[in-house]
Design brief:
Layout lengths: L21 E2 L47 H4 L10 H9 L1 H7 L3 H23 L4 H5 L8 H15 L3 H10 L5 H13 L4 E2 L14 H6 L6
Antiparallel strand pairs: 1-2
Helix pairs in contact: 3-8, 4-6
């Protein structure tokens, strides 16, 4: 099942989107859900360029002093010890995907990060040793359902401390099989985060792994 990594974004959700898969770009993953939600900045947040205090502005805007995108400052911010504002914004933007998929927000974010892992691995594969930035510049690559599920495995290996933690949390998030991963991917399509293609079906995620089979190869995975 091909996914074109070309930066395209769906203009409006399709009624058949849940039966198709979409296109996305590595660079565009940060901005795909930009219109889904914006938050007011309640704490002090200096602009990365001119140091103007962005407090009281919306996270999807620009600095009124120099015009720099506010999102550039989000990753550097810390509010009351609760993590970066960028993390809070990201979680909020994925709430529509959570509602459609029925998957908890942490599970949705895990699948999204697994998808990013799959894209990076594919770009490295076709880039012949070049850096991600160099290899991905101006390039379209295709990732399959199998690639995404492999990205899921690799991300799990790096994300969790051990098999027991992986089993507990993935079960809690309802991510017990490749079909569950496909369900979240197509929820992203349904809310307009991914562009549909006519060739692909959710069935391509069927039977690729169960959580038990995934964790059996834990010790042998990269």
């Amino acid at each position: 099942m091909p996914l074109n990594v070309d930066g395209s974004v769906l203009d409006s959700p399709s009624t058949k989107a849940i039966a198709k898969v979409g296109r996305f770009s590595l660079a565009g993953l940060i901005n795909q859900l930009k219109s889904a939600a914006a938050m007011e900045i309640h704490g002090d947040l200096p602009c990365v360029d001119c140091r103007y205090n962005l407090r009281g502005l919306q996270t999807d805007g620009n600095c009124p002093e120099c015009g720099t995108a506010i999102e550039k400052a989000l990753g550097r911010s810390r509010l009351n010890g609760n993590g970066s504002l960028l993390t809070a914004v990201r979680r909020t933007r994925f709430y529509p995907v959570m509602a459609v998929s029925g998957c908890p927000i942490d599970g949705v974010l895990f699948v999204h990060d697994s998808m990013r892992t799959a894209v990076r691995r594919k770009i490295q594969e076709v880039g012949q040793g070049k850096s991600i930035r160099e290899a991905g510049k101006g390039r379209s690559v295709h990732v399959s359902a199998a690639d995404i599920c492999e990205g899921f495995r690799v991300h799990a290996k790096h994300y969790f401390n051990d098999q027991s933690e992986a089993m507990d949390l993935l079960n809690e998030w309802g991510l017990r099989s490749s079909e569950d991963v496909g369900r979240v991917i197509f929820a992203m399509v349904a809310v307009g985060a991914l562009v549909v293609t006519e060739q692909d079906s959710i069935e391509h995620f069927s039977g690729l792994f169960t959580l038990d089979s995934l964790l059996k190869v834990w010790e042998y995975s990269r």
